[in-house]
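## retry 2 of 3
previous attempt timed out at serialization; input unchanged, resubmitting
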Amino acid sequence: MGDDFFALHLDTPDAGARTPRPSGWAYMADGVVRCAFSSNRSVKMGMGVNTRTHDSRAFWFLEQTGMETFSARLLGDRHQPKGDARPVSVAELTVEFTPELAYYEEMVIPAMQAKGGRDTAAVLDLNAITGLFGLGLVYVSRNETDRAGKLFAEMAGARTDFEGRNQFLFNDFGIALRKSGQFEASIAFFTRALDFARDDENLFYNLARAHYENDDWTRCMDYLVRSNACNPDLKVAGDLLRLMIGLDEDDRLLRRFGKPPVPPAVAMRARELLAAGSGRVELDESPIGTSVEAGRARSGGVRRDRVGRVDLKPHGRRD
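## retry succeeded, writing output
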């Protein structure tokens, strides 16, 4: 196989100009940031040698008012805004405030909508979720993995129904996260897309690709088997199978791309899948490892108790 074939592996942010890292700012520009946020500040108590410092945490209802301007109102004990709004700059938003999506969805929205009036503007919709996703990518670009991981986990586990909340949304977010090198978060969004889809070869391929990037050969192959069952002629799935075989046959390529050895069962299944496509063998479609869920997303929920926290791991070029 020539080096050009392995462009599949190099279609990542680590490849430089080949695939630009998705811009969090672009997502924020397409959406409208609107959510509950928390902020922390240090408060000094006492005087002299008796001075003590402790962190004080406050919760806010924060919404976008302009291209780069926001306003925040303090949230009281009943999860409703109180007092006057304070202006917040985009720099303050990204540094001093942390989104609390689960709290917003479960407590703030019901409380504000029950109050009525102008507070019925508290909603979780496509614009809000897009803006928050962009904010998460901004955290990723700053290596703030804890903030990003918490936000992406809560987004993948969101329960609110809104127009546009379907396999396409979660699949597109998953693709953006994979291109950003956040493979575990990507898998969480692709898995959530399975709640809306049952038989899409593209979604299964995207899950396989994310597991490949995350160095999980077994799960990668299990999803390729399911993609193949939906559409044996999907070209990108065939390319990934051939890539697996190439890596299995040449240890130098493994070292070049920083991949672990391909397990013998996975390499054998890859060859069987390609041979089955040519009509030479009958395909065994049983999974190699743990069972995976069925799912349909064209272009591109896990429930919150299954998503948990998404731990983001840095992935740099390793050749």
